[in-house]
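Escalated from tier 1: pyridoxal-5'-phosphate holo job.
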Amino acid sequence: MSFDIKTKLRDGLQADHPDVGWDFSRNQDLIELQFGEMQEDISKKIIKAIKNASQKVHIYTDLLQEFTRTISRHKNIPEENLVIVNATDKAFRLLAETFINPGDECLMFPPTYPAIKPSINIFQGNIIELGMQSDFKLPATEEIVKHVSKNTKLIYIANPSTPTGNLVTTRQQIIELLQLNVIVIVDECYFEVAKVSMFDLVAEFPNLVIIRSLSKTYGLAGLRMGYMIAHPELASILRFIEYSLEPVPSVTSLAGAIAAIKDEKHLNRNLKRHKKAKKKLIKGFRKLGLIAYDSDTTSLLVDTQHINVNADEFVNRLRELGVVVKTCHIYGNAQPGWVNFGIPKLEQTSLVIQKVKTLIDNAMILTENGLLKAKTTSNSGF
Ligand SMILES: Cc1ncc(COP(=O)(O)O)c(C=O)c1O
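Tier 2 regenerated the structure:
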């Protein structure tokens, strides 16, 4: 039957739709650091809770309330402020579903985490990008105000942000932005590492939304669990939209997430080891002549410009040596030498530094042989 499905799509969706999606293909023989995941051990309590929950997959779950209560108790957030979601990605989609009419704008500050863009685009909103300052901080509020119009609906700020790894704004600036008659979204995915939050401001500001995730700091990227914090009025609207159907997270995800939040001892153990590994990695990279920025996230930004190897070459060469990292093109406004490194498990840190040293040594040898004159004149790599 001939049927042009595109004639039935919502306005703005008639263009071609190539398959999209992140490349999550894996190779267990390599040290995979491209997604900034927590590499430390998973708590036995989490595994046990997921196993137990798997006995109950035949019934609809009542664990949503328990997860909400657990977050409330452990994070000291009233239940009325909480909205449980399938990690940050789902929070983005929910916010777009809730707020974006065609032509509405979402303001963001590259380089930054870009995953809100597809949700805005699907609801025919527009992304307005205003670059970070050279110190990776948000532009001054006066500058931001110039880009806020009657169409501006959302301002998205990852704090701390990726790939730069730093806290990009202050409490004072968030308060200034909240006066602008827009919704301000603060992505606190790395809260347990950065230990800075604006969540208490939701009591005063009905237009503030905080997003948190268990993907990185709790090492549960595969469970897809997170939560939003908002003023009770907005939180109830978000819950109404999100929970209109049977609560979204699966019984196994909820059970694992409850166990993770309760197991503070394990979280602290992992965060301590992770911090040690990050410190060692930064020190090791700096010794090798790389610029390695301090980080309040679970990955770090490395600039290879001083060794005259561009990011694509660096990533390809390092993969050949058994370590997978990524360039920073997806984040916008990336420098040619920017590479994003997840933090390896503490025991693997020396090995990763050693692999990077080998990469750099190889580049040097090639140059000394006169094979690669470009090394001293441009960023063209090997
Ligand atoms: C700023 C930021 N927010 C959120 C996430 C994680 O998203 P999710 O919770 O969907 O796994 C990341 C992951 O890289 C991130 O860098």
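The CA atoms of residues 43 and 265 lie 10 Å apart.
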